[in-house]
Request: fold
Amino acid sequence: DVKVTQSSRYLVKRTGEKVFLECVQDMDHENMFWYRQDPGLGLRLIYFSYDVKMKEKGDIPEGYSVSREKKERFSLILESASTNQTSMYLCASKGVMIADTQYFGPGTRLTVL
Amino acid sequence: AQSVTQPDIHITVSEGASLELRCNYSYGATPYLFWYVQSPGQGLQLLLKYFSGDTLVQGIKGFEAEFKRSQSSFNLRKPSVHWSDAAEYFCAVPFNNDMRFGAGTRLTVKP
Reply:
């Protein structure tokens, strides 16, 4: 059974803290993604990675960075968390073919106080 | 650019009633189209996808969708809704290496 796991389901942090969200996939997928999901706004792409050490900005990269040192692992970093980054964060992975399914992790609900 | 629109933000149906969730796409060529479901507090799960061939696609959990080129639509249907179908539903289309999602339709099921 395919699996995308995220390091935390719920996270509470304080403004200004550095936050790491980790995602691991076991499907040997080249592509990995980080989205945030907010009510009424749907899923918005933050960053994606198409190979180890490769990344591309999505629609809303400001305030975020990413790291992909190993194929199976893709980390999202909030350098200095702010209250407007309170959200649900979803990680996904996908193969290289356009018709490939995108598989999602269960999400991390981050609250920044 | 390729995109999808879900016109209905929220739909309420009674348990046992039929369901149709709308999705319209914007795409020059024959699109690849996906429907995902998100149960409360969970990630997204693929229901079904269309990329060629038969325009009526069967998915998991008793769902189906029909691709209609003339209407630029890919509506999701289920003949009889169960209480466990209450969730948010997303239509999506691939875009470069990414997937572009509609804003989602939240389904409430009345007993």
User: Anything to note?
Assistant: Chain A touches chain B through 26 residues (CB under 8 Å). The longest strand of chain A covers residues 42-51. Chain A is about 0% helix and 55% strand. Chain A has a mean pLDDT of 94.
